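Good morning,

Attaching, inline, the backbone tokens for the sequence recovery test we're adding to the shared suite. The designed sequence is right after.
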């Protein structure tokens, strides 16, 4: 029997509809800024996709496409400007970056409240502490997909193949927070098949076509294929494949396709995170406005109390008299 297909687009549409409804309750449409450095065509294509979807759900978005030769100082200067701009709610710097720019320096520089990728160390720490605010898009999208299709996570054995900061590590934290028993495998894991066969939920995020073969999968398991690999077919035409061999469909209980699986969830979750960031910023702003007026109230209250004290003493005075 062939595995149930866990299609991404209908689930992404549900997530986007929710994000759009929440966005419409904010005073202004949330504003996402995407920064891309260099001229990798795949990167340019993802960024176009993200920007187009943002417009479809009523968000604003701007793309800064910087040349391959951009220095770290130039990129940090742009991030500083975006951090200070109160009209910018979310900032995403597309990875990977050219060799002259240290990724960590850039990710540290983004204001954690605008960090819609969830890569700032503060957000990474909160995620691992079980108090997530802004969570990485692909892992969060995968959890939303599992929930939508009614695949139980609590108590499940989850095996993730890949330990990147983009996918594997944050996914391990999210699954752990959702009460799965989590194993993270990588290129130095001996007997990968022995480990992956333990999984009720197997997530392949290695970027290796056909890495996961049928004998590596427990019959009936849910298999999530994160891999996006561009390969040439027999006619020399380029197309996308995941990390999972097509024959896995004969063993797995459920399987995400590539394309049309996790990819659309990543994009939808990015926009949901942008709305979330805007909500948090709006709430913080209203709070500080309230604190300001509360402080004014407090001053007024003090004045009233002073009156009361005077009245009391007046009363007291009367009593004495
Ligand atoms: N669908 C989507 O929305 C997204 C898809 N992707 C795709 O997911 C894939 C992974 O991306 P990313 O995490 O950024 O990739 P990285 O290259 O940063 O990480 C790959 C991970 O896979 C591990 N790995 C590589 N080869 C093997 C192997 N033979 N056996 C076991 N583990 C292996 C590596 O191990 P080690 O650490 O030991 O080197 C590493 O931890 C890519 O195809 C990428 O395009 C990424 C983001 C979003
Ligand atoms: N800071 C940062 N954040 C990211 O989230 C990030 C990144 N950098 N760098 C690159 C990876 C990759 N990534 C994808 C997003 C959407 C699809 C996607 O929509 N895929 C479609 C197909 C797209 C196509 O046809 O090319 C699908 O799978 O159906 C794929 C991959 C986000 N990434």
């Amino acid at each position: 029997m062939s595995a149930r297909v866990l299609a991404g687009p209908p689930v992404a549409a549900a997530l986007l509809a929710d994000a759009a409804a929440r966005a419409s309750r904010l005073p202004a449409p949330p504003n996402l800024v995407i920064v891309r450095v260099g001229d990798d065509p795949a990167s340019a294509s993802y960024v176009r996709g993200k920007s187009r979807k943002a417009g479809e759900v009523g968000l604003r978005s701007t793309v800064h496409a910087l040349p391959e030769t951009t220095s770290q100082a130039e990129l940090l200067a742009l991030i500083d400007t975006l951090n200070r701009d109160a009209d910018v709610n979310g900032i995403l710097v597309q990875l990977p970056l050219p060799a002259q720019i240290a990724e960590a320096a850039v990710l540290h520089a983004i204001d954690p409240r605008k960090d819609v990728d969830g890569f700032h160390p503060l957000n990474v720490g909160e995620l691992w502490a079980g108090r997530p605010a802004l969570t990485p898009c692909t892992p969060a999208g995968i959890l939303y997909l599992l929930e939508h299709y009614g695949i139980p996570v609590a108590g499940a054995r989850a095996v993730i193949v890949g330990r990147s900061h983009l996918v594997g590590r944050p996914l391990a934290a999210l699954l752990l927070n959702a009460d799965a028993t989590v194993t993270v495998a990588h290129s130095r894991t001996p007997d990968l098949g022995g480990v992956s066969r333990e999984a009720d939920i197997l997530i392949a995020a290695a970027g290796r076509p056909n890495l996961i073969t049928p004998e590596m999968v427990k019959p009936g398991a849910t298999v999530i294929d994160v891999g996006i690999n561009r390969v040439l077919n027999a006619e020399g035409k380029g197309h996308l494949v995941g990390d999972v061999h097509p024959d896995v469909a004969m063993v797995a209980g459920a399987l995400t396709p590539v394309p049309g699986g996790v990819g659309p969830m990543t994009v939808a979750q990015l926009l949901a995170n942008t709305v979330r960031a805007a909500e948090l910023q709006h709430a913080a702003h209203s709070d500080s406005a309230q604190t300001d007026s509360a402080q004014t109230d407090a001053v007024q209250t003090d004045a009233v109390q002073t009156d009361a004290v005077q009245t009391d003493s007046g009363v007291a005075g009367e009593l004495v008299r």
